Amino acid sequence: MAGRFTPPTNPTRTTVRGGELPQPHALEGDGPADLDLGLTLGPLRRGPADPTFRTTPDGSVWRASRTPDGPGTLRIRIREGRPAAEAWGPGATWLMDRLPALLGAEDDPAAFVPRHKLLLATHRRRPGLRLTRTGLVLESLIPSVLEQKVTTTEAYGSWRVLVRKYGEPAPGPAPEGMYAMPDARTWTRIPSWEWHRANVDGKRSATIVRAAQVAARLEEAAHMDPPAARKRLELVPGIGPWTSAETIQRSNGAADEVTTGDLHLPGIVGWALAGDRTTDDEAMLDLLAPYAGQRHRAARLILLSGRVPPRRAPRMTPNDIRAL
């Protein structure tokens, strides 16, 4: 487990963008020696140029988040085999309080029992994988909505444009170009032409606005059981099983919530476990049934195994609505 985090004494202050802000203490924990920050936090990154996520040459992972207390920047690294972190901004204390969960302290990888040779081998090769739990719904929901029915390249580009234009510069000594995403009210006030400029069609932008209008109710889902949390999200028109699963996997650390309705995942799972690239959602769930309680972890390990079916169909064609 990514375990105990103990703050040292003697607080200090630091001058950061926007003036002098309290700098919370650095925290160090007794986390697992094999914790892999890249594998654990990688699902939170929306493309290589995500303005809310950065890795630096010293091995640090930087995240800029919109917390209930405001924007915050978190830096995490492995130092002498243990996770160490610092945070800045109004949301710093909130981020530090939830750091263990972010690093997988509430995850139980020992509950996973491999029943296929491929998963056994991948599980052994990736001992540092933990399922993260952010405790934040909107920060995973909005980019997931942007990824509906488009290529990841398109969605990542839209996320980047909107966060840079409407978000806030990350507090503290964050790498240049990092931003915390906009707050819920700002998402509801983005003009239609700016959505268009960001290559977001009316259906996806309307879904994001509807979600932002009930943001407080959706954020409550982070403290609910995953099935109930998904039902809460799916009450919003435009949010279906694919989007709710992609969100709750991250916000709730949901080890059993499988993404259905995906263009590629059923075929990848079918190919890896049964040699069948024509697998649909129903057949995929049948194949994952032996991993009940850990089906999302099983799917992640399959993706990490690199065993994917040879491509036959053409790739999904990007659609730039800005040219219309």
Q: How would you explain this protein's 3D organization?
A:
This protein is an alpha+beta fold and 324 residues long. 39% of the residues lie in helices and 14% in strands. A hairpin with a 5-residue loop joins strand 5 (53-55) and strand 6 (61-67). This is DNA-3-methyladenine glycosylase 2 family protein. Residues 1-19, 29-46 have a biased composition (Low complexity). Keywords: DNA damage, DNA repair. Residues 1-75 are annotated as: Disordered.
The N- to C-terminal Cα distance equals: 51 Å
Spans where pLDDT lies below 50 across 5 or more residues: 1-22
Widest sheet: strand order? 1-4-8-7-6-5
Question: What's the mean pLDDT score?
Answer: 90
- Helical amount among residues, as a percent range? 25-40%
User: Overall 3D geometry?
Assistant: globular
Let me know the CATH homologous superfamily of the largest domain. Answer: Hypothetical protein, domain 2
* Number of helices, counting only DSSP H or I runs of 4 residues or more: 15
Give the count of structural domains.
3
Q: Helices and strands, in N-to-C order?
A: EEEEHEEEEHHHHHEEHHHHHHHHH
Largest sheet: 6 strands, antiparallel
Q: What is the CATH architecture descriptor of the largest domain?
A: Orthogonal Bundle
CATH class of the largest domain: Mainly Alpha
Q: What structural category do the secondary elements indicate?
A: alpha+beta
Number of strands: 10
